[in-house]
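New to this. Explain the following:
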Amino acid sequence: MRVLHLGPSEARGGISAVISILTDVDGAEASHSVLNTYSSGNFIGKILAFSRARKDVKAHLKSNAFDIYHIHCASDFSFIRKANYARLLLRKGQRVILHLHSGNIVQWLKEKNRFKRYEDIFSNDKVKVICLSDAWKEQIQPLLGEVHVIENPIHPRHKPSQSKEEGKICLIGRKDSVKGHDFAIELINRLNKKGHEFHLYCTGITNSVSENTTALGWISEKEKVDLLSSSILTLLPSKYEGLPLAALESLACNTPVLANESLIGLPLIVETAKDFDFEDWEKKIIDLAKKTRDSFELIDSVKDYEKEVICQKWEEFYHRIIDSTT
């Protein structure tokens, strides 16, 4: 059973991390290969990367190299490119998985009735659509038809590695306005002006615009585990998320998470605050900083997201696809 993953495997972010985890499995019947579709360059660079990837897909089709094509996609131009790959594959009768990672996918597909442009893909019996939680399934299935749920996996490296540092709060995410860095920085500034002593450590940004913030840029996986473990709280003020690894990894490192209440599909133990409401976020941070928990409560809440559990779900799903189309 040969699976080719098409997606941004060389990018920095959650999708590439998921691809890395799913393709690094010992003892599985499925053999995994990866075709990177990402370019960090300008629009021309992205077009060239798309053309190269499409050429590679055609070469794989000629050699009948794979049994399943597992396409990882977000929204916007990412989805448009991946839909092109899907149509190319479907014309040759291939089995296709569309793995929807974006927290903006429903809104994007509804705008201008875009989903109707892709009905030929979603209605094809050779296509299986995957989303990241039951909550997402409730939103996506009425729009696209049958949808299956397989959650994001947590790499086993994510476990407590450091003792907690008083007042240390972190935000894990790329530099993007939807991730809420500016809101989080201002939030910590407001709290410290009121006499509290919190310090925010942010990945994704390289300039510390406040004495209460340390900009870390992009950090290694080991550094991320240490950061999550030593923090008393992880902030997730994102406008959109699918099923953010930062939240799952934080809980696995025994660190609570405070998220934007508009995000769906998160573990029930995640605390939420009103959408960019400073007063509500301030109150929740103060309360969580004082809260004591059972030492295993947070870790136990994400046992079902462990790598072995999720990879086994994928192995079984791949088998079902093969069995249903042979």
Notes: Residues 43-63 form the longest helix (21 residues). Residues 168-303 form a domain with the Rossmann fold fold (CATH 3.40.50.2000).
